[in-house]
């Protein structure tokens, strides 16, 4: 956490001004799921609003109390209610005659495809549930899932949910070491994996990483292995079981028990952008309710006609809520894509949008900035006419990236939803409502109906419109984390101690003159330059607004005169050349002109890549280590560790 600021620096300076507005289109509004009265309805009786949303699901026993907050901050939602998350995602759609609807269009990296209906997915999940039960997995036991982006990953998750065994999905790209620490932390006894995965046209081993991790996990008794690549793997008889010898042979009959609304559904580790990942616990009833509601309202989902695509990994919370639980609870049809945006070519995503007629696309700003770098001529080659809504998540979206996305992907027709949320919040909490809210490039806008968000100063008092501070939540919400796995004290400490009675998200934010919310980056990243508290996001956005810049990361490096000095790392657009001293000077001046002299970077480094987590977030703490010539910190959740060597190699020796 940031060191305690003194009284003169109570709030974040709020420097960048963005005046473009995109009011909702009347045609969109006329058909929209959300209406402006949803805000008032939820404000007059928040708990009644959430009870009404919970009725989207099938409950075998109705709850007796919507929220029990008597032991705050440990929440219980839908007390006494019972349900099964998997049957809510599957069987009930089949029973309602929708078994032939496609649940997933799977697109493999190499172009292999599978179309899986709700009826087929239900059968596969029942088979996997029977196999897990045969392996001795009982309700409450943890199962680790270390897989590529293939349908069996979804099947494994839902099979766990069906038998009440919380899953913990670990990114297939993480090392054996990262897998081992997660298995230890949640004490998993079963691992589901595959022989290997395809990554940028190459075959990489997953089972080999599991073998290595398990050298130090004596309690893991079974490893269930999907054959994906067909590569050679080591085999431990008695422990390892092929999926095709077990799951594919199992009965498709499985009776699903119901579970308490507060039964653990999964543990998901945070991205580790700011430090060691935390094991976030989500439970069943409230989580599924809010995933279903937000997926319906924020994406304006029409289950009969939309093709929904979250282009994110299932090993990130976005994949859990908006590839698996939200879309399936709503009976939606989704695209599941295994590969990267540039395999085998840089138009791969747009080819997929065109092929499946994707109508709703949800992705991260980092992907958009990469597409900006590659150039607008690439998406221009494809028909994107099926898209009717596009969204982003993961980081603040720079206004320039928002405009690029809106113009080149949304063709100036589609609403753009910038959705703020966290692993901890379980689902989207702050976002425009399409058809209701006007779009402002760079703003996440408003707390959704049923959510009470605020921006407060150092003392916990609400800041006035036009000022910056810290984002907090004033009331509990159904899909909130229940604790950090095995560490209730850390839960209270991390989220509920900074401001008594308020949930502290760890993010800086501002309210604009209309009272709308803008995210300004993490509190850990806030810089203090000559007594002014400056946001990394605003300076990065100013850099990205320059025609030559695709991406930027800003940090505060210690400086003898100013306390901290602004150091920027930028990736140039492909047409901008290599970036000599004139370009650097031009960019420094540009920032000074856009937001003021105080924000002029002391140094700008042109780099080929930035260190990012697997979910695409810039890890500024590592850049800070480089700039200050310190040993590099924890890199276990870095997508590509060779990036740090590239950056260090290009650093001037006096930095
Ligand atoms: P760790 O907590 O371990 O450092 P993390 O915070 O990166 O990791 P996630 O839960 O994946 O892990 O990310 C949530 C964070 O992502 C938010 O707290 C916020 O900083 C950022 N974020 C997500 N969506 C948005 C958005 N729309 N605008 C701005 N920031 C966002
Ligand atoms: Mg976080």
Automatic annotation (TrEMBL):
Keywords associated with the record: Acetylation, ATP-binding, Ligase, Magnesium, Metal-binding, Nucleotide-binding
List the catalytic activities from the record. acetate + ATP + CoA = acetyl-CoA + AMP + diphosphate
Going by the entry's taxonomy, the superkingdom of the source organism is recorded as Bacteria
Q: Does the keyword Ligase apply?
A: yes
GO MF annotation list: acetate-CoA ligase activity; AMP binding; ATP binding; metal ion binding
The entry's function note states:
Catalyzes the conversion of acetate into acetyl-CoA (AcCoA), an essential intermediate at the junction of anabolic and catabolic pathways. AcsA undergoes a two-step reaction. In the first half reaction, AcsA combines acetate with ATP to form acetyl-adenylate (AcAMP) intermediate. In the second half reaction, it can then transfer the acetyl group from AcAMP to the sulfhydryl group of CoA, forming the product AcCoA.
Q: Which family does it belong to?
A: Belongs to the ATP-dependent AMP-binding enzyme family.
**Descriptive protein name:** Acetyl-coenzyme A synthetase
Q: Which organism is it from?
A: Arthrobacter terricola
Recorded name of the encoding gene: acs
């Amino acid at each position: 956490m940031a060191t305690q600021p003194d009284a003169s620096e109570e709030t974040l300076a709020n420097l960048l001004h963005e005046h473009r507005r995109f009011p909702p289109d009347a045609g969109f509004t006329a058909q929209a799921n959300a209406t402006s009265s949803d805000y008032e309805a939820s404000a007059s009786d928040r708990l009644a609003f959430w009870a009404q949303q919970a009725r989207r699901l099938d409950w075998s026993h109705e709850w007796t109390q919507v929220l029990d907050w008597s032991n705050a901050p440990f929440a219980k939602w839908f007390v006494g209610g019972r349900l099964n998350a998997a049957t809510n995602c599957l069987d009930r759609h089949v029973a309602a005659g929708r078994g032939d609807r496609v649940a997933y269009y799977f697109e493999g990296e190499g172009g292999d495809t599978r179309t899986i209906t709700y009826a087929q997915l239900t059968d596969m999940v029942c088979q996997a549930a029977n196999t897990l039960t045969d392996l001795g997995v009982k309700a409450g036991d943890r199962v680790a899932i270390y897989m590529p982006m293939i349908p069996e990953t979804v099947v494994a998750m839902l099979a766990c949910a069906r038998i009440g065994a919380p899953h913990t999905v670990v990114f297939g790209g993480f090392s054996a070491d990262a897998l081992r620490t997660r298995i230890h932390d949640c004490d998993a006894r079963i691992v589901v994996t595959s022989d290997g995965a395809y990554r940028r046209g190459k075959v990489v081993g997953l089972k080999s990483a599991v073998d290595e991790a398990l050298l130090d996990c004596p309690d893991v008794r079974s490893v269930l292995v999907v054959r994906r690549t067909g590569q050679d793997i080591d085999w431990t008889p008695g422990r390892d079981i092929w999926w095709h010898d077990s799951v594919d042979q199992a009965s498709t009959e499985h009776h699903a028990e119901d579970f308490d609304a507060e039964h653990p559904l999964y543990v998901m580790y945070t991205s580790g952008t700011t430090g060691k990942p935390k094991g976030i616990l989500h439970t069943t009833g409230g989580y599924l309710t809010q995933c279903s509601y937000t997926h319906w309202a924020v994406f304006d989902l029409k289950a009969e006609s939309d093709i929904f695509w979250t282009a994110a990994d299932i090993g990130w919370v976005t994949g859990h809520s908006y590839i698996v639980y939200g879309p399936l609870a709503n009976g939606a049809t989704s695209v599941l894509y295994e590969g990267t945006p540039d395999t085998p070519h840089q138009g791969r995503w747009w080819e997929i949008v065109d092929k499946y007629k994707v109508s709703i696309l949800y992705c991260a700003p980092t992907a958009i900035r990469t597409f900006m770098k590659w150039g607008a001529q690439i998406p221009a080659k494809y028909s994107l006419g099926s898209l009717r809504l596009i969204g982003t998540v993961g980081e603040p979206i720079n206004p320039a990236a928002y405009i690029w996305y809106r113009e080149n992907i949304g063709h100036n027709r589609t609403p753009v939803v910038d959705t703020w949320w966290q692993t901890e919040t379980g689902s989207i909490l702050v976002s425009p409502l399409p058809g209701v809210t006007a779009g402002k490039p760079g703003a996440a806008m408003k707390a959704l109906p049923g959510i009470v968000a605020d921006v407060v100063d150092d003392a916990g008092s609400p800041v006035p419109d036009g000022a910056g501070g810290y984002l907090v939540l004033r009331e509990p919400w159904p899909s909130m984390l229940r604790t950090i796995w095995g560490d209730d004290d850390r839960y209270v400490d991390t989220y509920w101690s900074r401001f008594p009675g308020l949930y502290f998200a760890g993010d800086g934010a501002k309210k604009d003159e209309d009272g709308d919310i803008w995210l300004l980056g993490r509190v850990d990243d806030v810089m203090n330059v000559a007594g002014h508290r400056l946001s990394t996001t605003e300076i990065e956005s100013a850099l990205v607004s320059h025609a030559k810049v695709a991406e930027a990361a800003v940090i505060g490096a210690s400086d003898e005169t100013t306390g901290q000095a602004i150091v920027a790392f930028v990736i140039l657009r492909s047409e901008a050349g290599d970036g000599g001293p004139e370009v650097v000077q031009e960019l420094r001046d540009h920032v000074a002109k856009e937001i003021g002299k105080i924000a002029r970077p002391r140094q700008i480094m042109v780099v080929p890549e930035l260190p990012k987590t697997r979910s695409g977030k810039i890890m500024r703490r590592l850049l800070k280590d480089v700039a200050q010539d310190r040993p590099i910190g924890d890199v276990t959740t870095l997508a590509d560790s060779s990036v740090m060597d590239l950056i260090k190699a290009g650093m001037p020796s006096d930095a």
